[in-house]
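Good day; I would like, with your permission, to put a structural problem before you. What I wish to show you is a protein chain and, alongside it, a tokenised description of its three-dimensional fold. Thank you for your consideration; the sequence and its tokens are set out here:
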Amino acid sequence: GIPQPQATSDANDFFWTTYAPQFLVMCHAHAAIFHYIEAITAILGHLPFKRNCPLAFVNHRHFHKTGSLHLNRILFDTSEIDEEVPSANGDGSNNAPLATVTLSKDDYRTMHVAKILGLQNGDSLRAGSVRSPEQEDNQLAGLITDDAIVTWLPEGKIKKAQPTKNGDPPGSLQISIPQPPNTSLWNERNSTIIEDGAVDLSDTASVSLLLALPRPLQLGRILPMVSQLGIDQLVLTNAKKVPKDYFGSHIFRKPEVLRGLLVEGLAQSGDVRLPNVTVTKRLKIFMEDELDAMFPRGEVARVIAHPQRKNVAENDGVEDEVNTVKRMSDIDFPSGVPRRILVAVGPEGGWDESYELDMFTNKGFQQITLGTRVLRSDVAVVSLLALAHEVCATDPS
């Protein structure tokens, strides 16, 4: 009893005017039918989309946020370390772990160990405790190990101490940090003793970043990248082309959000050191009162990144070479001290050329460029930090 089209050429119009409206009415009642409609449309590929169709199919694509992160090292805060450390043999022997951390069942790190890594009881993983600048004297800050032991603590009806069939954790996760030499502080692990007996931290971050505050969404992308690459100091500042309301972002209202973004980058890189973060809303005051104390001119090379401008004379069309700037590999470092560098990166509109550039130049900043292209803040930051690390690691000779 289904009416058929009179001719093949009329099949398209017949389909859209007769069946499509009925299908769409059903879709409003049963959203799952959209999947079947997409399959039918794929099969009937010879039916083109009609612009004059009163009711057109809409391809709804849903993007779901995920809590899983690329954790190359499971990091925890010193406040998460268990107060009581169990003994391996129950007799207080040296077989007891140095420290233990118990993570809840719904913690993202627990989910990562169960779903992504699929670790069983007794398996080892890379772990460490985050060390922030104010925790230099904390003995447990900066612990790092590649031999932490996984122990599952079943909860509820689950009795087996292993991830379930669908990959969910059976309960809480206990991470045991072994005794030295399998565990060490970051300084001890990456330091060498030089001839006079002083400690030379070979992996100490030699690059610092002064960043004109970007848009909050962009800042949320930049912070993990910055901590991945590794920096010593991070200064977030205002600039002429930075809207003041950027400082009202939730990243600054909730310090744990900023810290969490930096820790995310550390977990990716396997590092445990948080950079020292300074937020200043007045660039000029910072340059006059705090810059020299944080970055002494005789110890730290100062550079400012800004797009290169081509000044062409109107009469003869000859390029003006007066404002020629350097590349990162051409900058001058203070002599007699290890190479350290401070990189100043402006907003996407660039530093103010009549005022801010002169202020930086008067403070000993060498102007560098990545070329004539105007880059987004995240692209510029990653590129400049990578070049800065490379030039600092280059043998001065």
Observations:
- The radius of gyration is 29 Å.
